[in-house]
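The following record pairs a protein chain with its ligand, iron/sulfur cluster.
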Amino acid sequence: MTELPGDADHRKYVVHTYGCQMNEHDSERIAGLLEADGLVRAESDADADVVVLNTCCIRENADNKLYGNLGHLKTWKAKKDGRQIVVSGCLAQKDQDKVAERAGHVDVVMGTHNVHRAAELLEAAKSSDAPITEILEAAVVDDHAMFPSALPVQREKAYNSWVTIQIGCDNNCAFCIVPAVRGEEMSRPYADIVTEVEELARDGVTEVTLLGQNVNSYGRDLQLAARQAGDESAKLRPLFSDLLRDVGAVEGIRRVRYTSPHPKDMRPDTFAAMTETAAVCEHLHYPLQSGSDRVLALMHRGYTADRYLTRLAEARATIPDLAVSTDIIVGFPGETDDDFERTLEVAAAAEYDYAYTFIFSPREGTEAADMQADFVDPKVASERFDRLRVVVERSAVAKHQARVGLVEEVLVEGPSKKDPSVLSGRTRQNKLVHFAPPADMARRLRTGSYANVEVTSAASHHLIGEFVEHVADASHTVRIPVASL
Ligand code: SF4
């Protein structure tokens, strides 16, 4: 095989991530694999030999953005021999042939189940004139591909980490492409998850976020598999609530979060585990999508607005001081004024701390994309969106104002982007707080440390506070860059 220019030194890579936390975590794995293969991170495309575009097909216009970026990268690639381009992620999974056809200068197209093959595919592409496409339709059992968390990971932050507990999704929400591109739901073996969290804690990580498309159905497939193998004792375990308790008990882990649960699978034992496990944060992301039972049925969500609100009341009754966030889609095909009024009512009753609101836009390959005859007029959808924003902002401001005067534990994330003399961090409720560190504390309050901060004022998206006391030092190692001689 011909040695490419730059092989003698370390080749450099950049990973650009589009989309959700699952993609962010996949990007960390791709980076980990490339670094295990001897590449080092580049500051920018200009400095890189390998550019990875880890795509998402959930966001609007994702394909136009991808082909736009690939157009720029054609010029980038031509400027230096040996440069390579990888397209990975959901859009690569869905549009594998289209990517290779429309952008012949791409070197590797790999799907969501092929992350573990990143380094090998790049190597193979060095001697290929055409894009190498490798897309597995499902995760491979008995192989590390099944749970790529077992692969090397180059984490973006040293003090917190995503931990994949499940991949794929068995639901069929009419607007969602995830089941088509991520495959069937598979739970990661329980012991592997706990072991990974123990290793992360030893590495100085103090906050973990358990990650899956439908986390509270975690273990359902493991129970089925165990029962099929004749183990009747597997009837009730493992449950997601067991996992919360065991991960929360790992020494050194101060905060456990999770995303995303599905309201139809929410159970009281999860609320009990949240309140009885000190490390599990008082924050629940609880996606509503619509407040109309008719639209929820069209979406195949599997719950009614009433059941949703009843479960939410149970959660709040069980978990003191719980913050709640949500996702809501406005203008789903067939949504009438009356349906939208129900959404406003439920959003007002739920009193969210914050909400991610979206105007429906069709995703090719989903059931909802074929409902063109019922698409809502964009002007009407936009007006509804604005009205919903008013309702969710009102409760967000009220919830934030209710924090004024309280002392909150803050995990320091680093200097504020707008004012480097101010530190930013997150409360246990996942609210963003800005505060000025006292001069004698500036060095101690480094990224990953914990401080108590009194909240002095509130806006809809952040809090302002005053430092009260230092709680814990950052326990991860700071990497000091060493210049090569
Ligand atoms: S639960 Fe629904 S919205 Fe969530 S990933 Fe599965 S199909 Fe998509």
